Amino acid sequence: MNQKTSPQSANVTFGTLLTRQELQQEFNTLKQLPTATSHALYATLPDAIVRHLESALLPHAAALGIARTPGGIICAVLTNQAGPTQVRFIVPLLTDKAKFWLTEAAEEKHQMQCAVDIVETHQLALVQVINPLAGDTQGQWPTVKAMLAKPMPTVDVASQAQELVSLVHILADEGESLLPIFSIDAVWYVLVGELQAPPGPGSAPNPSGLVH
User: What span, in angstroms and rounded, lies between the C-alpha atoms of 78 and 100?
Assistant: First the structure.
C-alpha cells in the first residue's frame, strides 16, 4: 500500500512548457548540446532535488493524473519520484500547446522531458521521466483525449494562479508515495503556465518557497 506524504507545507515554484524548438534554443548556450526530442516542462529547482531526479542509484517512478481546480480548470498532474523526493508538475490544459504536449506524450513518446534550471549552479539539466501514458491506448487516455476536445474556459492570469495554488493544497492532502519502500520527505510543486518565455539558465527567479 502506498504511504501518504502528509506534508505540513509544500514547496512551490513556477514553470512553463517549452516546444522542442524552444528547448533547443535554451541549449544553444551549452558547450555540449543535448538532443531535444519533444516538448519539455521547464522549472527552477534546488540542486539537491535535481541530484535525486538524475540519480541512477535511486529507484524512480512516475504517475500522471487529471485534476480539477476548485473553479473547474482541468489540469494534468505529472508526479516524478526519485527515492523519497517528489516533484509534481501541474499543467493547466487550457491551451493548444498544453493539449499537444499531453497528446504527444500519450501517442508518440516513451519518455517525458523536464528541463531544470538549478538554483545554486545556474546549470540546465535535462531530466527524462518515465512516461505513465506510453502505450495506454486502452486505458485512461481515450477518456482524457475526449475531454481535451471540449472547449476550455478563458481564465485570466491572476485567477489562474489562485486556482493552481488552491489545487496545491488539495493535492498535498491526497499525495501518496509511488515507491512503497519510501516515505516522502520532500515535495515540490511546479505550477506550469505559458504567460511568458522562460529566462535563460541561471536567471530564473528562485523558487517561491513554502505554501502553508
Answer: 15
Q: Is residue 178 part of a domain?
A: yes
Strands (E), 73-152: 74-82, 85-92, 111-118, 124-130
82: helix, strand or coil: strand
Residue 132 identity (one-letter amino acid) = P
Distance of CA 31 to the CA centre of its chain: 26
**Residue ranges making up the domain that contains 58:** 10-85+92-204
For residue 39, tell me if it sits in a domain.
yes
Buried b (16+ CB within 10 A) or exposed e, 37-68: ebbbbbbbbbeebbebbeeeebebbbbbeeee
Least confident of 14-23, 179-188, 203-212: 203-212
Task: Indicate the pTM of the whole model.
Answer: 0.84
